[in-house]
Amino acid sequence: QLQGPEEAKAFVSAFLKRSMPKMKDEAIQDMLTRKAVVLEHYSKKRKKGKRKKTKGFTAKERRELRLFEIEPEQRRYALYLPLHELWKQYIRDLCYGLKPDAQPQMVQGKLLKADLHGAIVTVTKSKCPSYVGITGIILQEMKYVFKIITKEDKLKVVPKLNNVFRLEIDGFISYIYGSKFQFRASERSAKKFKLKGTIDL
Q1: DSSP symbol at 131
Q2: Number of Cβ atoms within 10 Å of the Cβ of 160
Q3: What distance in Å separates the CA atoms of residue 174 and residue 135, rounded to the nearest whole number?
Q4: Burial class (CB in 10 A: 0-12, 13-18, 19+), 123
Q5: What is the DSSP code (8-state) at residue 96?
Q6: Residues 76-110: pLDDT tens digits?
Q7: Contact 156, 150 (CB under 8 A)
Q8: Superfamily the domain 75-190 falls into
Q9: Domains of the chain, residue spans
């Protein structure tokens, strides 16, 4: 039985023959004399499986499931007053406390990008006179409409197009021109708005 260096040499030779069966003994010995052996390992390439995209509900499916429907028993103005208080605190934090010396343009810019769920708004101008005067808490904001609950516990769906909304908090009054505001809340946060003095309906 071989021992020491001879045993190691025999082990290496046997290992190389198993690892590189196509290589001749002379070539193996030549590699050993150079004292540089590189063993190549060919791994099987894994096939990349196509990731299945998580499929959301279609607009039709959302309507059928009534995901965004507000049930009649939930259409109570008093039920959403705590939400309005949370929204006011959110805006105060967003506008650095809404101090009396705060710049109106800064407040306006923040409000244009803020989440309006919970805000109390009033329709001040409209091409459709029946919308003028509607006041309530915004329960849902969609791309083209606001869903507003009034003090009379009535749910109003008010389109943004051709309507001007008045929003007041801690003495600051802001006007939202719905025609220039037709975005989803998530899209609006990244939108750049140009502050203008007046905009026609």
Answers
A1: G
A2: 21
A3: 15
A4: buried
A5: T
A6: 999 999 999 999 999 999 888 778 777 888 888 88
A7: yes
A8: Ribonuclease P/MRP, subunit p29 (2.30.30.210)
A9: 1-49, 75-190
In sequence order, what E strands does 32-162 have?
120-126, 135-141, 145-150, 155-159
Confidence of residue 198 (pLDDT cuts 50, 70, 90): very low
**Coil, helix or strand at residue 166:** strand
Residue 29's identity, in one-letter code, is: Q
Tokens of 72: 């009649």
pTM of the model: 0.64
Q: How far apart are the first and last CA of the chain?
A: 101
Residue found under tokens 């995901």: 67
Closest by Cα among 144, 155, 83, 92 to 119: 83
Q: Which residues neighbour 37 within 8 Å (Cβ) at sequence distance 6 or greater?
A: 12, 16, 31
Q: Is residue 137 within 8 Å of 149, Cβ to Cβ?
A: yes
